[in-house]
Structure formats: C-alpha cells, structure tokens
C-alpha cells in the first residue's frame, strides 16, 4: 500500500518536472534546427548562434543588461546594507515594523504599478528615459530585497560582539568593517546575487522606463517575440539558460555556506 | 550621542530611497488620477472607471487571476507535499525553483512555439487522435502559461509550511484512528494554511497585472488590469486614466493582503 502510493507520487513528481523543464528544452532543441521554425526539426546547425554573435546591436543590448545589473546590484547592496543596519538600530518595535512595511511596498506591488509610477516620477523630475532611468529603477526595486536578505543576519548577531569591539577601543569604522560586515557577509552576498537576478530578469518595470534607443534583453526579447518566431531567440535563450544554471550553482554554494553557519548558530 | 549621528548617516541614503521611490511614486499615481487627458483637474477618470467597460474588465481580470491562483494551488500543493517526502528534498526544491529563474519572456516565447499551429502541443493532439486546433491566442493558453510561470512561487511557501509541520502530529492523528484523508483535512491542511495564503498572495496580485502574457500568448483577447494600465500609459498616453486604474489595483492589492493576513491572526 505504502509502496503503491509512493510510486504514484513519483510519477506525479516526474510529470511536474517534465512540464516545468519541457518548454526550456524545447527552446534549446530548436535552436539547432536548420529549418527556421519551432516545429519540424530539419537538420542540425550552429547558424543561429553564428548569427547571434554577429549581431552587434544585440551584443550591445547584452552588454547594457549586464552593466545595468551589476551596477544596480552593487549600489542597491550598499544602500540596502546601510538601511538594514539603521533599521536594526531602532529599538522600538513599532518604528522597526513601519520601516519594514515601507521597505516591502515595492516587493508586493505589481510590476506594472512600479513601472507606471516610476515613469511619472522620471518624467516630472526631468530625467531622460534611457540608461539612467533604467539604472535608477533597478536600484530602487533591488534595495528592499537586499534589506530582507541582510536584516535576519544582523538580528541574529549578538550586539555584545560590537560592544566588545568598542570596549577594546575600536572606532565605529573599525566595528563596521572588522566585525559587523564580515559577520553579515553571507547575507550581503545573497542580497547582491538576488538583486543581480532581479535586474537581469526584469521586464515590466524596464519596459515602462526605457526610452527609444535603449533596451535590455527582456525588452528586446519581448519586441522580437511579438514579431513571431526567430531561432536567434532560441540560441540566445540556450546561452542564457546555461548562464542561469551557472548562477544557480554559485548561489547554491553561497547559501549552503551561509546556511550551515546560520544553523550552527541558531542551535 | 555619537551613535545617533552615525545612525542618521547610515539612514540617509535609505531614507532618501523610501521618500523618492516608495512614497513619492504612490502619491504621484494618486495625484495623476485626478487629471483628464487634457491635463485638467477632474473626477472624470473615476466616473469612467465605473462604466460598464471598465467594470467588466476588472471582473474579467479577477476571474482570470482567480483561475490562475486556483490551478496553481491545485498543482502546487500535491507537488510540495510529495517534495517534502523525498530524500534530498532541498535539492529537488532547488530544481523546482530553477525554471523560475529563467527569464519570463523566454518561457512565454517557448509557448508561442509549443502552442503554435504546427507546434508540439498540436502534434501531440494529432497523435492521440483529437486533431490539431487553435491553441495560441485563446483563454486556455493564457491561463496555462500563467499557471506554468507561477507554480514555483506557489510551491515555495507551501513547501516551507509543510516542512515545518511537526511529524508527531501526524502520528498522533494516525494513532487516534484518523484516515489519511481526515488527517489531511483536519491536521495537515489547517496547519499549512499560512503557506497556502502567502502562496495565493504571490500569485493572485501579479496575475491581476500580467500584461506581457496577454499580448504574447492571449493575442490581446484577454485584457487584465495590468494590460489596461500599460495601454493607457504607453499607447493611448492617457496617464490620468492609467493612474486611476493603478489606484484601483493598489486598493485591491491592499484589500487582498489585509484579507489574507487578518485571517492568519485568527487561526
């Protein structure tokens, strides 16, 4: 009886995995199709990849996307870490909670609203739509994620560590760089990494705040996909899939490391 | 005293972010909702919103979001349940999460190929003898793809809730003679309802505001609140009306959050 139900469960799980991964491998499979459509495989070819690497416009867009992601994640991490440190320094529960709910507004808001409201904001502030508007909005929506990743680590840290450092004559700067930041570094890395992936993935917000002439990968894929199937996109997605898998491995490694530390302390 | 100044120094960039990118955008959306397309102050947008067209659209949007949430839950709950029973459950969970890190647009694009006239879905339907039919640009494909995209986000909170469940409660229920179904209905489900609620939160609200899927997969047949906002802002350039719809989306969002978290306190 027990066996029977567990084999049913296994079939179910296999089916779910199949459904989740099938579209991705479907894309990858047809990226090698010489036929030029996503139905009917005619022959194996690397042509689409070759075409992809000769498309300078697309390569510039890839570069834009990466620059935006790295810069926004970096700046968001710095602001977010300081934000988390100052949230912790408020001892009153109510102040802390209201700061946290303000922090979470951008996480729970639908992308469309974030995009639309940022569009109004940038237009009123006279910021031209393009690189800077996209960068600013990516920083803006990444900060709360960083705070959420860093804050638990900070709260877990006993303040006696910092007090001890101060008693031993460490300056505030030393306490920050030698005690606090190293302790919360797994949270900082995780936050940076999440900010990076959010930025790479974002479509809806970026779509609102890009002007003509500046584009990120998501926005470009959207406009290409609206025109129909082109196997260049398949080739592109294969490369992006591989990059994603690599990033996941890095992230898994980071969280495993921070996870063991965290568990050890919590117990 | 010195700590106070240090704190405000840390707080400064974060506070600026909260004011500029959290509070100001919301106020701006509300402010703009009171202007008609010519830039005159009026309540016309609100009057328009309560006409049949917009109410019908809101209702439709709700209906689709409800369907998407329901189907995601129906798939995600058993999946999460089975996952918690597996060996190496963290690894399997990670593998479920990986597809959610693939760019959304690429997944949507994959389904353009799969549901296309000669795509894999139709080849399968041909093969089992049903015969090919129009799949792309239908309500079915829209709901299917949306569910596909949201499944990992639904699984994660439910998995966590199930994983935190104390197994001795299940043994106790079994010892007291409860059938598997009774145990599920009376013990497991009530104790994991928080996970289900946060899962519904992270699916329902984004489902109300999807706009790229309605364009790519539903071929403009489905208009959700998100599509309408995008249309008003970027195509019609009627920011006032777009902002009005956004105000209602925010109200709905806050209401939904209050509903799902109020009950949480009650349980």
UniProtKB/TrEMBL annotation, chain A:
Principal place of residence: membrane
Lineage top rank: taxon: Bacteria
Record-annotated ABC transmembrane type-1 domain positions: 62-251
Subcellular location: Cell membrane
TM segment ranges: 12-32, 58-85, 105-125, 131-155, 175-197, 203-223, 235-254
Keywords: Cell membrane, Membrane, Transmembrane, Transmembrane helix, Transport
GO biological process: transmembrane transport
UniProt membrane topology term: Multi-pass membrane protein
Entries under CDD domains matching the protein: TM_PBP2
GO CC aspect terms: plasma membrane
Pfam families, per the entry: BPD_transp_1 (PF00528)
Family, as annotated: Belongs to the binding-protein-dependent transport system permease family. CysTW subfamily.
Name the record gives this protein: Spermidine:putrescine ABC transporter permease
Organism: Oceanobacillus iheyensis (strain DSM 14371 / CIP 107618 / JCM 11309 / KCTC 3954 / HTE831)
Higher taxonomy: Bacteria, Bacillati, Bacillota, Bacilli, Bacillales
From TrEMBL, chain B:
GO cellular component: plasma membrane
Domain ABC transmembrane type-1: 58-260
Cross-referenced PANTHER family: INNER MEMBRANE ABC TRANSPORTER PERMEASE PROTEIN YDCU-RELATED, INNER MEMBRANE ABC TRANSPORTER PERMEASE PROTEIN YDCU-RELATED-RELATED
Entry protein name: Spermidine:putrescine ABC transporter permease
Record's keyword terms, sorted: Cell membrane, Membrane, Transmembrane, Transmembrane helix, Transport
Bilayer disposition of the protein: Multi-pass membrane protein
Major location category of this protein: membrane
InterPro entries: MetI-like, MetI-like_sf
Gene Ontology terms describing biological process: transmembrane transport
Gene3D superfamilies in alphabetical order: MetI-like
Cross-referenced PROSITE patterns: ABC_TM1
Pfam families per UniProt: BPD_transp_1
UniProt similarity note: Belongs to the binding-protein-dependent transport system permease family. CysTW subfamily.
Transmembrane residue ranges: 12-34, 62-84, 91-115, 135-159, 199-218, 238-259
Location within or outside the cell: Cell membrane
């Amino acid at each position: 009886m027990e066996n029977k139900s567990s084999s049913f469960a296994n079939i179910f799980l296999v089916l779910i995995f199949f459904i989740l991964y099938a579209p991705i491998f479907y894309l990858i499979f047809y990226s090698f199709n010489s036929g030029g459509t996503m139905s009917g495989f005619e022959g194996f070819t690397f042509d689409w990849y070759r075409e992809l690497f000769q498309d300078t416009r697309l390569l510039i867009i890839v570069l834009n996307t990466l620059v935006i992601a790295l810069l926004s994640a970096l700046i968001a991490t710095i602001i977010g870490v300081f934000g988390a440190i100052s949230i912790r320094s408020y001892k009153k529960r109510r102040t802390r909670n209201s700061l946290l709910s303000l922090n979470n507004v951008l996480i729970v808001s639908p992308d469309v609203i974030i995009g639309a409201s940022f569009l109004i904001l940038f237009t009123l502030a006279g910021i031209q739509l393009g690189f800077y508007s996209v960068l600013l909005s990516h920083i803006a929506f990444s900060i709360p994620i960083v705070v959420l990743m860093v804050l638990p680590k900070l709260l877990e840290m006993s303040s006696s560590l910092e007090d001890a450092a101060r008693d031993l004559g460490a300056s505030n700067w030393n306490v920050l760089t030698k005690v606090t930041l190293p302790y919360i570094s797994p949270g900082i890395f995780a936050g940076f990494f999440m900010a990076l992936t959010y930025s790479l993935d974002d479509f809806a917000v970026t779509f609102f705040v890009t002007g003509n002439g500046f584009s990120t990968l998501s926005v470009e894929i959207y406009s290409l996909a609206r025109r129909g199937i082109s196997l260049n996109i398949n080739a592109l997605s294969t490369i992006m899939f591989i990059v994603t898998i690599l990033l996941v491995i890095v992230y898994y490694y980071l969280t495993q490391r921070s996870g063991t530390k965290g568990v050890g302390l919590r117990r | 005293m010195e700590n106070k100044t240090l704190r405000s120094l840390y707080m400064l960039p974060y506070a600026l972010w909260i004011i500029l990118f959290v509070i100001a955008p919301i106020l701006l959306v509300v402010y703009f909702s009171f202007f008609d397309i010519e830039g005159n102050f009026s309540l016309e947008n609100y009057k328009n919103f309560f006409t049949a067209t917009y109410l019908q659209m809101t209702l439709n949007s709700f209906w689709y979001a409800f369907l998407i949430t329901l189907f995601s839950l129906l798939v995600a709950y058993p999946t999460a349940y089975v996952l918690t029973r597996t060996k190496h459950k963290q690894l399997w969970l990670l593998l479920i999460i990986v597809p959610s890190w693939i760019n959304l647009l690429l997944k949507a694009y994959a389904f353009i190929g799969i549901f296309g006239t000669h795509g894999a879905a139709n080849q399968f339907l041909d093969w089992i003898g049903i015969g090919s039919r129009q799949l792309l640009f239908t309500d079915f494909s829209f709901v299917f793809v949306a569910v596909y995209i949201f499944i990992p986000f639904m699984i994660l909170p439910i998995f966590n809730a199930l994983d935190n469940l104390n197994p001795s409660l299940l043994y106790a229920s079994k010892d007291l003679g409860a059938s598997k179904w009774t145990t599920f209905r009376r013990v497991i489900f009530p104790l994991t309802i928080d996970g289900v609620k946060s899962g519904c939160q992270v699916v329902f609200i984004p489902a109300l505001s999807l706009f790229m899927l309605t364009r790519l997969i539903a071929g403009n047949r489905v208009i959700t609140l998100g599509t309408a906002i995008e249309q008003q802002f970027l195509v019609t350039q009627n920011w006032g009306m777009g902002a009005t719809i956004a105000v209602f989306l925010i109200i709905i969002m806050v209401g939904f959050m209050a509903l799902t978290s109020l009950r949480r306190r009650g349980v």
